[in-house]
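Lecture notes, continued. The same structure-token format from the folding unit now serves as the input rather than the output. Read the line below as a description of shape only.
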């Protein structure tokens, strides 16, 4: 294959990388992450709990994913809406308290194994859209440090925090397709990069071979479909 064709493919590949960088930058600016992180830092102190997390619903997959949380990174935790406390709260739109969780099975047990944390009790409240038409996420706190458990005052305070972040979380809820497109682009880019490496290896030992031509056609077809994003 001619050097010019390889150069053209590499140029298109760089355009894909730039497109992915733009998407990633747009996603990082969505939802006022600094304010959300501030709430994650102060809520445990106010409610005397060990951890606090903000979750967002993905309506297409019916999964709930972590936006930010104590000692956790974005999307480090994903749970099914139908089989988790967070999902139950999002589905019902009602706050919920659970105790003695270490002795019961559930999604929290799998998350605990993954994160090295032990959940004993939890309070979770829904985050509504601004117009109250749907639930877009939830705030959950874990392991009350005080012996008394969660009071009605605690529930109401966490619900007030949920109200304060609802605009930010709704923006993330509405724009979460950005990160999916970015991830798909990343997969395509890595696939194309591997194909180009394979082409370089074949080109060095078998120039203009049928296998080489087939490989480069594959790269061109993949680029053609990917550039339609």
């Amino acid at each position: 294959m001619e050097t010019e064709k390889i150069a053209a493919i590499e140029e298109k590949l760089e355009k894909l990388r730039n497109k992915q960088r733009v998407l990633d930058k747009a996603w990082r600016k969505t939802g006022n992450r600094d304010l959300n992180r501030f709430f994650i830092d102060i809520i445990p102190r106010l409610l005397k709990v060990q951890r606090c997390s903000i979750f967002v619903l993905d309506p297409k997959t019916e999964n709930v994913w972590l936006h930010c949380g104590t000692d956790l990174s974005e999307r480090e935790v994903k749970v099914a809406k139908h089989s988790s406390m967070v999902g139950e709260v999002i589905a019902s739109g009602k706050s919920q308290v659970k105790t003695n969780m270490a002795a019961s099975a559930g999604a929290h047990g799998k998350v605990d194994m993954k994160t090295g944390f032990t959940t004993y009790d939890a309070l979770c409240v829904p985050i509504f859209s601004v117009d109250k038409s749907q639930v877009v996420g939830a705030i959950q706190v874990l392991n009350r440090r005080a012996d008394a458990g969660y009071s009605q005052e605690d529930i109401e305070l966490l619900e007030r925090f949920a109200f304060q972040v609802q605009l930010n979380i709704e923006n993330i809820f509405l724009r979460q397709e950005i990160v999916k497109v970015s991830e798909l682009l990343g997969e395509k880019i890595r696939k194309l990069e591997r194909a180009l490496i394979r082409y370089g290896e074949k080109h060095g030992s078998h120039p203009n071979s049928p296998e080489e031509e087939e490989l480069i056609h594959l790269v061109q077809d993949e680029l053609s479909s990917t550039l339609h994003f």
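Point for the exam: The chain has two domains: 3-26+179-226, 33-175.
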